[in-house]
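Risk register update: the risk of archive-format incompatibility is retired. Evidence:
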Amino acid sequence: MSETTLDLLGLKCPLPALKTRKALKARASGDVMIVLCNDPMAEIDIPNLLRETGDTLADTMREGAQIAFRIVKA
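Archived output:
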């Protein structure tokens, strides 16, 4: 099990969700990925993506405009 960070700061919808989907495909089951975004739509798009993929949103943290999603690969 490993933990990686995906920095998507500055990207706008739909790129954060698309790049998250692509990155998750390369992960093994149980791996943790931290996704950093500052697009407000990511708060809707990333959880919807994870409902489709079956991966788990373990935590969402917000600091100013930055949003960090902690995702566990199914």
